[in-house]
Design goal:
This protein is of the alpha/beta class.
Length: 456
């Protein structure tokens, strides 16, 4: 789609010549002879760029620029003047004009200015698009009581400098909570730096957090700032903080107390201004009692606790999450769009989700890619996901078995059913994976009354 250009100039010759040049370059051009018509046209057409004459009868260009900026603070306006002064240029720039061109207009200067201005506009639009995509990616979706309680706490504590300890199972969205807290804070324009304490070897965690000096250990080939320094003025998120070594915990505690870090191998303390958020899937009280986590650090980190409920405790959110992930995956990540039937959503709602929201997202992506037709059905869910809710799989009945023989019967049935679904009911492949003669597997399928319909 061609970019729209609006020309506001009281000289017919300027409007005609400039309009002809721009139309030849492929732009959609509208031209008016005074500021009143120009403001009306801007309100209707919302052009991408305006060429605006400074000296005009009635409302002049400077006053028109003010009014355009009131209508649209992001408007890109290039001023045109027959006798521009430094004072005029300064005033126009202060009011937000992109540039000012002198008459007689030079074709090359016009095109260079236009190209640069539109590149500036493209960058601004891309920046907005990326921010929207990031916000959507890290959006907390749900209407359940549990998730509304989390959102309420985020809104109340986000604007404060308080440290927050986020707890919950893997995949529940603890990072989303941390990012939402950062976005709500006065540090939102500062960096958000994440450290996965469980993914970094214990011997490297201190270097990762506090930095190091060249030559301080084998492999330290240059000075390097740690995560605390990188997060200066923003937020440091210590994910899986319960896996941090005791030595690193002691140093983190010292940084929280003193507000300074010292790089490994260095002697100069470096002041850091960082808000620390942390998360864990462990019960830190248990870790403290067993000597694996410092009690004093726990109380430093746990000023405000936020617990993120598992997906099984907020099943009413699953339809909303399904719709959200379908939208994100098809609109932003290029997966082919498909509708999803209400029956399929209902079946997904009934499943167990040990991997929580992360597992649900991966499942939706699998369904979008592998479902057979243009619409995801309940049969697709059964074929590609299975029925992993405890009641249907028979696992919940194991503890109800009264004899060992009954236990073996229930467990074997559940195991075979799961393996058959895993191999999409290909008996030969299933038997091979189980190292079992195919004839034996057929006998067991018959004995337990297993059918493909059972998987649905």
């Amino acid at each position: 789609m061609a970019r729209r250009i609006l020309i506001i100039d009281d000289e017919q010759g300027i409007r005609a010549a400039l309009g002809q040049l721009l139309e030849f370059e492929g732009y959609e051009v509208r031209a008016v002879g005074n500021a009143v018509d120009g403001l009306a046209e801007y309100g209707k057409a919302r052009p991408d760029l305006v060429f605006l004459d400074v000296k005009m009868a009635g409302i002049d260009g400077i006053e028109a620029l003010k009014k355009i900026k009131e209508l649209d603070s992001s408007a890109v306006v290039v001023m045109i003047s027959g006798h521009a002064t430094i004072q005029t240029a300064v005033e126009a720039t202060q009011l937000g004009a992109y540039d000012i061109l002198e008459k007689p207009l030079d074709t090359d200067r016009i095109l260079v200015t236009l190209r640069n201005a539109l590149q500036h506009l493209d960058l601004a639009e891309e920046n907005t698009r990326l921010k929207d995509a990031i916000q959507s990616r890290y959006e907390i979706v749900g209407k359940s009581y549990g998730i509304r309680a989390v959102i309420d706490k985020i809104e109340r504590v986000g604007k404060t400098p308080a440290r927050v300890l986020i707890t919950g199972e893997n995949g529940t969205g603890k990072e989303l909570v941390a990012r939402a807290l950062h976005a709500q804070s006065t540090r939102a324009d500062g960096p958000f730096v994440e450290v996965n304490c469980a993914a970094i070897p214990s011997e490297l965690i201190e270097s990762e957090l506090f930095g190091h000096m060249k030559g301080s250990f084998t492999g330290a080939i240059a000075d390097r700032a740690g995560k605390f320094e990188q997060a200066h003025g923003g937020t440091l998120f210590l994910d899986e903080v319960g896996d941090m070594s005791l030595a690193a915990q002691a140093k983190v505690l010292r940084v929280l107390q003193d507000g300074v870090v010292t790089r490994i191998g260095g002697s100069k303390p470096i002041a850091v201004d960082v808000r620390v958020l942390s998360a864990t899937n462990k019960t830190l009280e248990t870790e403290i009692s067993e000597g694996r986590f410092r009690e004093d650090l726990y109380y430093r980190l746990n000023v405000v606790p936020i617990h993120v409920p598992p997906l099984r405790e907020r099943r009413e959110d699953i339809p909303l999450l399904v719709a959200h992930f379908v939208g994100v995956l098809t609109n932003r990540e290029g997966v082919a769009p498909r509708a999803i039937s209400p029956e399929a959503v209902e079946r997904l709602t009934k499943l167990d989700w040990p991997g929580n929201v992360r597992e649900l997202r991966n499942t939706i992506e699998r369904l979008l890619i592998l479902a057979a037709g243009p619409r995801i059905t309940a049969d697709d869910v059964a074929r590609l996901v299975g029925t992993r809710d405890a009641e249907q799989s028979g696992l919940s009945s194991l503890l109800e078995c009264k004899t060992f023989e009954e236990f073996k019967h229930v467990a074997e049935r559940a195991f075979l059913l799961g393996k058959l679904r895993e191999f999409d009911w290909n008996v030969s492949e299933t038997a091979r994976a189980l190292d079992m003669p195919r004839s034996n597997l057929y006998k067991k399928i018959e004995r337990y009354g297993l059918t493909r319909e059972t998987a649905a």
